Amino acid sequence: MSVTNRGGFNEFTLNALRIAAGVLFMQHGAQKLFGWLDGNQVELMTQRGLAGVLEFFGGMLIVMGLLTRPTAFLLSGQMAIAYFQVHFPRGFWPILNGGELSAFYSFTWLFFFANGPGSFSLDGWLRARRESRPVETSTAA
Fold it and tell me: What is the mean pLDDT of the chain?
């Protein structure tokens, strides 16, 4: 789906999903980084600490819709690694191995990598601003 053929309810739901998923993802990072929301603070220079940084700050970028595609690509990979490293050894099916959230987030971020953030985002605002600016040509002698 290209950006030009989105409109109305499709555009609204794309932006709502991006914001909601980003806020929910940030909560996982807040648990790891700060011990908030009944979480256990982890050491920053560990794999779980890196996961906390990616979840909190990556989620924040997703909510704002800033650098959405590269951030979503990185987060999708992070969640795929989490799934195969932590959950898959316990069994194939995500519902049985506790990996539903990792799998769901991996595919959610892959969706945003492929589709972009929507128009209600900083990326959308920057794109609209760039497209409305006239192209300057150099007339150097």
Answer: 92
Cα 18 to the center of its chain, rounded Å: 7
- The number of beta carbons lying within 10 Å of the beta carbon of residue 107 is 12
Maximum distance among all alpha carbons in the chain? Answer: 71
Please, how many CA atoms are within 13 Å of residue 111, restricted to the half-sphere of its CB?
Answer: 12
pTM score: 0.86
The model's pLDDT over 85-129, given as tens digits with 9 standing for 90+, comes to 999 999 999 999 999 999 999 999 999 999 999 999 999 999 999
For 99-126, give the DSSP string.
Answer: -HHHHHHHHHHHHHHHH---SSSHHHHH
pLDDT at 133: 74
The closest of 86, 112, 121 to 100, measured between CA atoms, is 86
Nearest Cα to 118, choosing from 59, 58, 64? 64
CA atoms within 13 A of residue 100's CA, in its CB half-sphere: 3
**pLDDT of 46 above 60:** yes
Instruction: Give the whole-angstrom CA distance, residue 110 versus residue 126.
Output: 22
